From TrEMBL:
Its EC number is 4.2.1.51, 5.4.99.5. The record marks T265 as: Essential for prephenate dehydratase activity. Residues 96-272 form the Prephenate dehydratase domain. GO terms for cellular component: cytoplasm. It comes from Stutzerimonas xanthomarina DSM 18231. Pfam families: ACT (PF01842), CM_2 (PF01817), PDT (PF00800). It catalyses: prephenate + H(+) = 3-phenylpyruvate + CO2 + H2O; chorismate = prephenate. Catalyzes the Claisen rearrangement of chorismate to prephenate and the decarboxylation/dehydration of prephenate to phenylpyruvate. This is Bifunctional chorismate mutase/prephenate dehydratase. One of its GO terms (molecular function) is prephenate dehydratase activity. InterPro entries: ACT-like_dom_sf, ACT_dom, Chor_mutase/pphenate_deHydtase, Chorismate_II_sf, CM_dom_sf, CM_II_prokaryot, G/b/e-P-prot_chorismate_mutase, Preph_deHydtase. Residues 284-361 form the ACT domain.
């Protein structure tokens, strides 16, 4: 058989496989519609159905990755299934998700990575507004940045947890690649101002010092806002990501300018529903301790005694007189696990206040 004939036979096989894939995706979508009907039929008057289950979504994606035998890698296969699941869920009930806007931010990219393209995403002007939208029930979930591998904690998010009663339902990690962007009218040899979010400017500090040491660095509310400003200015550039570049029609004059190649940001999914254990979970808590010698030791000892892995601990200034020390702690495990329950009981006896922000599946993608 000639190469032409072999190629023709392979294309015929691919066409046949595409038809089967289409049939199976359609069958899955019909099953999703049946799930919606079953859930809706069993509701009491005034009760709302819960269509999105974080623990179920996490299990499905992990299961797919376990079954995958290549040649596509696990993460790529999981992303494909994420989009199928997102579209099928939209047939049951489209999710409304708030994120730190405007359009084109890394927060929006994180929201789409976690929930898929079929969600209704709503940009908000500030992190606190994302929290308020979730608390008010205007959206199903919110996506907020909580820490960056280079610059550390996002304090606005931590402070918002002190002010609002909300549940952490999940997390998503996003590799952050920054590019230097310009518009069609930008004179690249006469740039006098570079816009970006303060965190992004900090993450590219060494690169800027080396390449644009005398250019003014202007911190703005978001990278997308920076990209938007550049479109109308001939002497400025912006530091932002791929989504902002595409959305605002900007060109890259330098790619991946972040100082650390492993630069990543962790985002939290906030909502109102408790998430059952999956066997691979994290728990986040807020604790305030009395101002006395050994307070931090008393706080950490129960974790050590029970062999619980701490993944993060942050301290924030108090918001009232009694909250002298406020600790944000992430640990491995679910608050329903016996060892975690024991830790929380021991801490509760010594703490001024203890609040479980939520237990949720560890990031899959």
């Amino acid at each position: 058989m000639s190469d032409v004939d072999r190629l023709k036979a392979l294309r015929v096989r691919i066409d046949s496989l595409d038809e089967k894939i289409l049939e199976l995706i359609s069958e899955r979508a019909r099953c999703a519609q049946d799930v919606a009907r079953v859930k809706t039929a069993s509701l009491a008057d005034g009760e709302e159905a819960v269509f999105y289950r974080p623990e179920r979504e996490a299990w499905v994606l992990k299961h797919i990755m376990e079954l995958n035998k290549g040649p596509l890698d696990n993460e790529e296969m999981a992303r494909l299934f994420r989009e199928i699941m997102s579209s099928c869920l939209a047939l049951e009930q489209p999710l409304r998700v708030a994120y730190l806007g405007p359009e084109g931010t890394f927060s929006q990219a994180a929201a789409l990575k976690h929930f898929g393209q079929a969600v209704i995403s709503k940009p908000m002007a500030a992190i606190d507004e994302v929290f308020r939208e979730v608390v008010a029930g205007a959206v199903n979930f919110g996506v907020v940045p909580v820490e960056n591998s280079t610059e550390g904690a996002v304090n606005h998010t931590l402070d918002s947890f002190l002010e609002h009663d909300i549940v952490i339902c999940g997390e998503v990690e996003l590799r952050i690649h920054h590019h230097l962007l310009v518009g069609e009218t930008t004179k690249t040899d006469r740039i006098t101002r570079i816009y970006s979010h303060a965190q992004s400017l900090a993450q590219c500090r060494k690169w800027l010092d080396a390449h644009y040491p005398n250019v003014e660095r202007v911190a703005v509310s978001s990278n997308a806002d920076a990209a938007k400003r550049v479109k109308s200015e001939w002497n400025s550039a912006a530091i932002a990501g791929d989504m902002a570049a595409q959305l605002y029609g900007l060109s890259k004059i330098a790619e991946k300018i972040e100082d650390r190649p492993d630069n990543s940001t962790r985002f939290l999914i906030i909502g109102s529903q408790e998430v059952p254990p999956t066997g691979d979970d994290k728990t986040s808590i807020i604790v305030s301790m009395r101002n006395k010698p050994g307070a931090l030791h008393e706080l950490l000892m129960p974790f050590h005694s029970n062999g619980i892995d701490l993944t993060r601990i942050e301290t924030r200034p108090s918001r009232s007189g009694k909250w002298t020390y406020v600790f944000f702690i992430d640990c491995i495990g679910h608050h329903q696990d016996p060892l975690i329950k024991d830790v929380l009981e021991k801490i509760g006896r010594e703490a001024v206040a203890l609040k479980v922000l939520g237990s949720y599946p560890k990031a899959v993608l």
